[in-house]
Amino acid sequence: MKPGDIKKEFARPIYRNYKKIIKQARYTAHLRTARLIINALKKKQAKILDLGCGPGDSSSLFFEKGYRVTGIDLSQDLLKHAKKLSFQKLICQDIEKPLKVLKNHFDAAVMTGVMEYLDHPLKAFKQANNALKKGGYLGVTIPNKITKEREIGIHTYHQKDIEPLFKQAGFKIERKITFHGWYWITQNKTQIKYTAYLLKKE
Ligand SMILES: C[S@@+](CC[C@H](N)C(=O)[O-])C[C@H]1O[C@@H](n2cnc3c(N)ncnc32)[C@H](O)[C@@H]1O
Description:
Elements: H1 3-10, H2 18-24, H3 29-41, E1 47-51, H4 60-65, E2 68-73, H5 76-82, E3 89-92, E4 106-111, H6 121-131, E5 132-143, H7 149-152, H8 159-168, E6 171-184, E7 190-201
Parallel strand pairs: 1-2, 1-4, 2-3, 4-5
Antiparallel strand pairs: 5-7, 6-7
The structure holds S-adenosylmethionine (SAM).
């Protein structure tokens, strides 16, 4: 999706009640992926980068841990919600472009519910890799391939197509888990399944 279309999509009135949407869609990826990262980090203090943070739910478990979190998103509308949470810094930008953060700085990055909207995922993986310290983790959800993706207007992926991109971006796969991602609530409850990957910067 083009940046302008992403901004328009998340400016729709329906997203003003984001919590209600994620409840209806039975979306738990923000928690499950964060747990993968927290278990791998085993650290009292960590610097986290939330890519496509939206209203900020994807960082809620990091805040509980007292981690310092920087959030990045294209949508000013959703960032207004995120401003009420404990982010150390919020940046409005496209994550497929060079990130306005320090390089080799973060212990982990998270990207949940975002791959659906990216036209060039490799660019975003490379940006995440640049921002991470060596040995840092990236937790990312990949929506598994469905036939109706055009109808819904999102990108979905085969694992065999996406896994080589992780390697190209400088990551190795540490873990992967598959679970219910979300229901497309207005489209006959079409189910999107997720594979969440825990990747390590090599
Ligand atoms: C479904 S929301 C997920 C929000 C959050 N990560 C979560 O798990 O609750 C998708 C978010 O990705 C953001 N997004 C999509 N493409 C982006 C891009 N190229 N650059 C920055 N943010 C992007 C959207 O603006 C939106 O906030």
